[in-house]
Amino acid sequence: MELPVNKHQMKRMQSYDAFIQAALQVIAEKGYMHTSIEDIATTAGYSKAAFYVHFKSKDDFLAAFTQNLIQEFIDRFLSSFILQEDWTASVRHGIRLFIELAERDQWCLIFFEFYQIALRDEEVRSKLQLHYANWARFLAELLDKISSRNGLRWQTDSHTIASLIMALLDGYNLQRNILSAPVDAQHIEEAVIRLLRAWVLPEASKEG
């Protein structure tokens, strides 16, 4: 049973969320290195003193911000994904949902910032490594559900397949934000479907 939240706790939660949302906007526009605590506080509509109620420093904020963003992405995906009857439809649905979420609120730009910071910040790198480990495990479990539901057997372990799919989607997101004519998302879907079909054991194969 959850305890009731009083007005003080509610205001504290609201200000915390405001700082997180403000950082999404400011970091996407200016980059983390050029974003100050004052920038975040002003955009959130609070004082710097209010910022320090929640966070000890900018680095402390970055750790919380990273964790919050990653968890929000995962939660949105899990709440929207629906396993389809046809396995290829499940795969296409998952890829489209992933790309759709990555396009929201300039998340790709934020994640690219994280990648740069992770090269020199051990805490951020650890959070990103945990993020990838969680995604790989989730995708592997999803592939196992798809194979079980459709009578499929993979020629290699599902975790390896999941890691390759993640690498393909990461490359797509990078190209989409840099190149003027990136690969079409539909081609990514087809590539993943062909990849999976190539790893289905012949005696268990069912065309989707």
Automatic annotation (TrEMBL):
Top-level division of the source organism's lineage: Bacteria
Keyword GTP-binding part of the UniProt annotation: no
Keyword Lipid biosynthesis: no
DNA-binding feature ranges: 36-55
Matches recorded under InterPro entries: BetI_C, Homeodomain-like_sf, HTH-type_Tx_Regulator, HTH_TetR, Tet_transcr_reg_TetR-rel_C_sf
One Pfam family per UniProt: TetR_C_6
MF terms (GO), sorted A to Z: DNA binding
Annotated HTH tetR-type domain residues: 13-73
Keywords: DNA-binding, Repressor, Transcription, Transcription regulation
Name used for this protein in its record: Putative HTH-type transcriptional regulator YwcC
Species for this entry: Xylanibacillus composti
Designated gene of the protein: ywcC_1
